[in-house]
Amino acid sequence: MDKRIATLAEAVAGIEDGAVVMIGGFGGSGAPIELIHALIDRFIATGSPKNLTVVNNNAGNGHVGLAALIEQGMVAKLICSFPRSADPKVFTELYLAGRIALELVPQGTLAERIRAGGAGIPAFYTPTSYGTDLARGKPVEEFDGRPYVRERWLKADVALIKAELGDHHGNLTFRMAARNFNPLMAMAAARTIAQVSRAVAPGGIAPEEVITPGIFVQGIVEVPAPAQEEALNRADAHYPEVTE
Amino acid sequence: MDKRIATLAEAVAGIEDGAVVMIGGFGGSGAPIELIHALIDRFIATGSPKNLTVVNNNAGNGHVGLAALIEQGMVAKLICSFPRSADPKVFTELYLAGRIALELVPQGTLAERIRAGGAGIPAFYTPTSYGTDLARGKPVEEFDGRPYVRERWLKADVALIKAELGDHHGNLTFRMAARNFNPLMAMAAARTIAQVSRAVAPGGIAPEEVITPGIFVQGIVEVPAPAQEEALNRADAHYPEVTE
Amino acid sequence: MTSKLSNAQIAWRAAQDIADGAYVNLGIGFPEMVAKFQPPGRQAVFHTENGVLGFGEAPAPGAEDWDLINAGKKAITLKPGAAFFHHADSFAMVRGGHLDVAILGAYQVAETGDLANWSTGPKGVPAVGGAMDLVHGAKRVAVITDHVTKDGKPKLLQACTLPLTGVGCVTRVYTSLAVIDIEDGHFVLREKLPAISFDELQALTGATLHLDGPADSAVADLITPEL
Amino acid sequence: MTSKLSNAQIAWRAAQDIADGAYVNLGIGFPEMVAKFQPPGRQAVFHTENGVLGFGEAPAPGAEDWDLINAGKKAITLKPGAAFFHHADSFAMVRGGHLDVAILGAYQVAETGDLANWSTGPKGVPAVGGAMDLVHGAKRVAVITDHVTKDGKPKLLQACTLPLTGVGCVTRVYTSLAVIDIEDGHFVLREKLPAISFDELQALTGATLHLDGPADSAVADLITPEL
User: Fold this and answer.
1) Can you give the CATH number for the domain in which A224 is found?
2) Which domains, and CATH codes, for chain D?
3) Rounded to two decimals, what is the model's pTM?
4) Residue B138 domain-assigned?
5) CA distance C25 to C91
6) At a CB cut-off of 8 Å and minimum separation 6, what does C117 contact?
7) Does the CB of A213 have a partner CB in chain C at under 8 Å?
8) Which chains, if any, share at least 3 CB pairs under 8 A with chain A?
9) Signal peptide location in the record (chains C, D) (predicted)?
10) Is the pLDDT of residue A244 over 60?
């Protein structure tokens, strides 16, 4: 078994118009910048994929990564917990112009809905958001005298995630706090593509140190020395590059 | 912060009559034999704790560990998925005599109920057991055209678990498949005591390799070279030792 | 010539349908045998409920490590690329639809796809393990079983009489006499031993066997090596 | 003498109530300041929603690693005994009642314990983050805030007028003027600045301040170092 994909272009080739795409990361930490940029390249070359529903904790920052994907007009709807950042201009303008839809989900509920999607749990109850605007229209039930809101699972057609090591079976590790949503999204997508900083042979990750077992991963593509969104933004980078 | 407990006797001192006690392990793998035997010692010396509700995947094997705990008459009720083993005589006889109660739970539902208890999710829906005797009396709901059974969380007063490394903050790693229910039970108990094969200073476990973060662990007790239930049973061991 | 397939031959036949790279859970006991018969050049990844993916054969006697066992509590070994995880993640794999195939034993299978394989009735100590989870989520749930009980009664029925493990979950049955799919509430015969006639097979089956096409071409010969 | 506490002084006061070894989540922004004022000899373990337990101060400028950030996306460092985990485990810690204290900012707090701290109304882009999760599960949910808004209106009210973050979740409020507990639907005044009278404080508060005992002994002086 060898889940390696040779190029970023091949890695994002199968994503269709209208797809639900989970994108890992919390802000720039753990964001698969190179996979996102490959998707933008494809869109610029072919006009597809568009009308995407993107699941991410945020709404991008600056003009790279998720912000650049939104800036291209590829995203019809965003499901996230915190669409603000140091430079959220791209999302903010489209949102206020009514050109992108937003489903706002509390962060812990977002994480749990994604995990539920991966674990075959169609619905669960949480205390989070009870009595607030974000619980409107959702069933409420009392357990042991306390009210809880019912939430549904969240699944995706594709997950684009960022990992540190990936073996040929798709077993993954993550670097520090870049773990965040990445292992959960791997579980919840029909097809999970991981960009890994280093691809290793099976056995290259100790079985006890695997964070995402390969069963949740359909393809890995090696991206040595991946870009950090924060560093790109500090350099005022744009994707694609702005030419004079 | 130092969560080390000096002796096994101190580690099990706080468990009261009638407590719900989760005990880690799958069969003998990951079973905290020494903690269980310390609890038996306390019972023999003081008559307490008794009337325990024990949560474990199994019902013990032979006459050591969980089987020995049951053999002492300390367990009023067992919540488990598979109360059979190579030598299940202890449980079988008490059960058939009506002297121990059994709540049979499908293994995946047991794991998920324990995780839910640890994660603050009071109830969730699962396809497991739908249309079977084990779903009797449980609410059923349809999601996306498919029926699911509603299950409740499972929590405990105490969890007794077995880990490999444990640092003074309670961060834990587990040895191979001895992981099983142990990290979940650590989450679901008000008080989690881990026997660890080796106690290390904070920093002795790489932050990315921690399996159970210390927030889920209230005490660790070092038990170097812990016994394996399977090995004890192959030697026909009894606890306490049978004297002529 | 044998009148029915041995367990090894049933397991061999089931193994032929497992694709290279498939993620597979084999039930405790007889189904474990399927792992031995992977066709050359194919390598499935085996999952066991207690938190191991990518395990291999049993170790040599005396070389067991009792922290490294399968769901049947038997000692196993690891292949390169193996991973450990806890029970909730393990059943996320099961329930979440990540396994390609689960192969299970059966007391009874109904033409509706219902399966009974965990309890023979109210006597004794009930034990369910992971059976009720495994029948949900795997992309394909197959059963391997003798075609009839030890005393010759059909195990393939219109409806199970024993306590159910799952409803409408089984899609293929490999028996000692035939390979039968379950489609739209019917048993559809795909393969049978050449030595047994359709009428003989029907007489040993507790529900109607359907054919997917003309009688002379719809059913293939069930041929296995001597095992 | 100051007429009210500085933010640093409010944070200092809140820090005095955090026990040694407590697991603590500090909300983004102002609450992060609480970490600086742990009393000598006490060491809390700080949790951040994005999957880190046991982090320390900000690194020196230029030494940032952008894979090591907190929920506010600021660079952090690790202390010995730190651990990483994914978002579902992180919020299991929050929702599952494993945190000892969460200290959050507030737009408004009601005497019922209701909190409004995520939205100032329907204008602009709404963003909630982990706020609605943090108010549930932590054993103690405390708020640090100026006693009144920038234009002098009460932030402590009978009922919140802004969109709620959570219902009945706050148990203690540290303000620029006082320390107030929420018990049985009432504000109970515990400490106030010596320079302000009870009546003055009541006038700046949008709901009745109760006393737990005789007026001359129920309220302690709120005293902090100059910060």
Assistant:
1) 3.40.1080.10
2) 7-212 (3.40.1080.10)
3) 0.98
4) no
5) 11
6) C27, C104, C105, C106, C107, C108, C131, C143, C165
7) yes
8) B, C, D
9) none
10) no
